[in-house]
Write a structure and sequence with these properties.
Helix content is 34%, strand content 14%. This is Extracellular solute-binding protein.
Length: 377
């Protein structure tokens, strides 16, 4: 699916790491039975009105006192500032687990810790993993629901897109020749230097990275085979580096070329002056992450308050300040509530942009599950 640039995403700054959560012999969940003002179980509330309004939701969340998040590095989309602001605003302790986990590992953790007080309350997932696990989500509509375009949310509120960006190639110009296209990565100068952020069968960034490469090689959202074939060639040439990149590997020089979201690559330009970022002109691939509430959340009221915060003007502007395009950007721009300075730093892409539909994502997921390991094994 192609979207116009003004409906599209942004770039500039962000990256990765976070706080921590103990996982030994966690106590059983004691909080999911709380009743709202209207008599609805907090775990079944579908809007703030079920709590009697925002004041009731805030009161219920404060009574729970904690929120468990997972796979949210503080430098990723400005999540460090988001977590801090939420905690300070409501006096709720945010337990942040496994900051470098993949989307699939979020789901695995929820299944493994189901019924425990340490289970994730909320998810932030790549498209493929999110759409494959909707049975684990609780429907909820935030107060700003009407500002979110229909194509970026499930009609009952099982999931909502939160922020987005473009796939890109980041590279250290002090260590490798400038990358001008995806095809450059097959050149001998990049031997052992090209890393992909994660496993595309588990991680949203890596999944979209393969899609970007596929489009650059004549493929499309309907055909990711050319992307898998390119990575096979990259491996055969000795250029593929099987290391998950992090800010530490980038800054140490271990991963001098990284295929990742543009906002994550762009974050490194602040720390490493020689780091540059390319969004291939012939392969602009956009993607939003998916926000959802765990239906078995140990802190169901806090989980719903977290969603309200993320989709409020304050939360959306914190994401914009992290270099990503918040899903309510158009509505906030029209209302005059967007952080103008941050919004001006979110570039658009001229020309066609690929954003996969659910059907395309399902087909690509299946193809990767059947072919990726053989290609890079």
């Amino acid at each position: 699916m192609n979207l116009s640039p003004q409906r599209l995403l942004g770039a500039l700054a962000a990256a990765t790491v976070t706080i921590g959560l103990a996982a030994c012999a966690p106590p059983e969940n004691q909080s999911s039975g709380e009743q709202t003002e209207s008599g609805v179980n907090a775990a079944e509330a579908t809007s703030a009105e079920d709590f009697g309004g925002m004041e009731g939701l805030i009161e219920a969340a404060k009574a729970e006192g904690e929120l468990n998040v997972i796979a949210l590095p503080p430098d990723w989309a400005n999540y460090g500032a988001v977590i801090e602001a939420f905690g300070q605003k409501y006096g709720i302790k945010v337990n942040s687990a496994q900051p470098d986990a993949s989307s699939q590992e979020e789901i695995n953790a929820a299944n493994q810790q189901k019924g425990r007080s340490t289970a994730p309350d909320v998810f932030d997932l790549g498209q493929a993993v999110a759409l494959a696990n909707t049975a684990m989500f609780a429907p909820y509509k935030v107060q700003t629901w009407d500002d979110i375009p229909d194509e970026y949310k499930e009609s009952d509120g099982l999931w909502v897109n939160d922020y987005g960006g473009y796939m890109s190639i980041g590279f250290d110009s002090a260590k490798v020749p400038p990358v001008t296209s995806v095809d450059d990565l097959l050149k001998p100068e990049y031997a052992g230097k090209v890393a992909l952020n994660g496993d595309p069968t588990q991680a949203g960034a890596a999944f979209s990275g393969v899609v970007m490469v596929a489009v650059s090689q004549g493929g499309s959202g309907d055909d990711v085979a050319p992307g898998v074939d390119f990575f096979r060639k990259l491996k055969e040439a000795g250029n593929f580096l099987p290391v998950d990149p992090t800010p530490a590997t980038i800054e140490s020089g271990q991963t001098p070329v990284v295929i990742d979201w543009n906002y994550l690559n762009a974050a490194e330009t602040k720390k490493l002056p020689s780091w540059q970022v390319l969004v291939p002109e012939n392969a602009a691939v956009a993607g939003y992450y998916y926000q959802a509430i765990n239906k078995d959340a140990p802190h169901p009221a806090a989980a719903r308050l977290w969603q309200e915060f993320l989709y409020s003007d304050e939360g959306q502007n914190l994401w914009a300040q992290g270099g990503v395009r918040p899903v309510r950007a158009d509505a906030m721009t029209e209302a005059g509530t967007i952080d103008k300075a941050a919004a001006e730093q979110l570039p658009t892409i001229d020309g066609p942009t690929t954003l996969l539909t659910q059907e395309q994502t399902d087909a690509a997921t299946k193809y990767l599950a059947e072919n990726w390991a053989a290609a890079i094994g």
